[in-house]
Amino acid sequence: MLLYIVRHGIAIDREDPKCPSDPERYLTPGGIKRTREIARRIASLIEAPKVLISSPYVRAMQTAEIFADAVDIAKSKIEKTDQLLPGAEPGAFLRELGRRKSLDSAMCFGHAPQLDELIATALGAKKNLTELKKAGVACVELAHVQPSGGKLVWLVTPRAVRKLSKGK
User: Fold this and answer.
1) Full residue range of the structural domain in which residue 72 is found
2) Residue 91 belongs to domain with CATH number
3) Which of 52, 117, 144, 162 is the most exposed place for a label (fewest CB within 10 A)?
4) CA–CA dist 20, 32 (Å, integer)
5) How far is the C-alpha of 125 from the C-alpha of 74, rounded, in Å?
6) Quick one: which of 114, 104, 110 has its CA closest to 142?
7) Which region holds residue 20: left if phi is over 0, alpha if psi is between -120 and 50, else beta?
């Protein structure tokens, strides 16, 4: 199975007086624009995943919706799980994923540092090996979801995507 792991885009700053509670924090206009650019570029490089799964927090769901548009999947098909919330145990999400039979690809959306912990767990590492940037994407190939026996196929930063898009 290919697991695409996407950190949410740039959200309103916690220090902004207009900032709502953490679950309600939303993408900024610039965050939406950058996330769309990244989603379009990633969509041009991969086959559409079979399932999109997101943290229920607003900024993660907005990111999932942007990627759903890019890979031509109905937004209504995005599934929500608390297993991608900040602080969730990464193994729980992998176990949830493992219960799905014959799933060959999935894309999930969440938060740092939990997604870096998810990558480490999927790779069987004891500590974090990555630091996903906002709207960053990693692809992990999982031979077995349990026990974790994954390989990091690629990881791309938003800056790299922008440079590729500009042909630099």
Assistant:
1) 2-165
2) 3.40.50.1240
3) 144
4) 18
5) 34
6) 104
7) beta
Residue 50 near residue 105 (C-beta atoms within 8 A): yes
Strand pairing report for 150-156 and 137-142 = antiparallel
Highest mean pLDDT (candidates 29-33, 98-102, 125-129): 29-33
- DSSP 8-state class, residue 58: H
For the chain, the domain total comes to 1
Q: 162, exposed or middle or buried, with CB in 10 Å at 0-12, 13-18, 19+?
A: middle
Tokens of 89: 């145990």
Helix H or strand E encompassing 102 = none
Other Cβ atoms within 10 Å of 39 Cβ, number: 24
- The predicted-structure confidence for 32-43, as pLDDT tens digits, reads as follows 999 999 999 999
151-155 average pLDDT score: 95
